[in-house]
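Problem statement: downstream parser choked on a complex file, so we are re-checking the raw output for the zinc ion run. The parser issue turned out to be on our end (a line-ending mismatch), but while we're here, posting the original submission so the record is complete.
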Amino acid sequence: MYDGLTRPQCSVLTQLRTGHIGLHAHLHKIQVSPTPNCATCPTPETVNHFLLLCPAYRQQRLKLIIRLGTARLTLRRLLAAKSEHKAVFEFVRDTGRLPRYQL
Ligand SMILES: [Zn+2]
């Protein structure tokens, strides 16, 4: 499943899939962040919000849409299909939101 991916790429992929990642919704759950909400939006910063909805990453998402050739993004599509992982890593890197991953 993780053939051809670097260790940080495997790690971020697993964490995006499980939701156990450095976004506020998870950090709040494990009592590291005082709020579950996004820094930009009055809504929990979940993986779904980060990848698909947050307006703060509109530019990066547009690039993702162009690269994938479709605006019909779903978590399932982004995280399950092997061929799309590199575009997802590029999105994560471009947002600068999860800087501890060397993607
Ligand atoms: Zn947001």
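For whoever reads this later: The CA atoms of residues 10 and 80 lie 13 Å apart.
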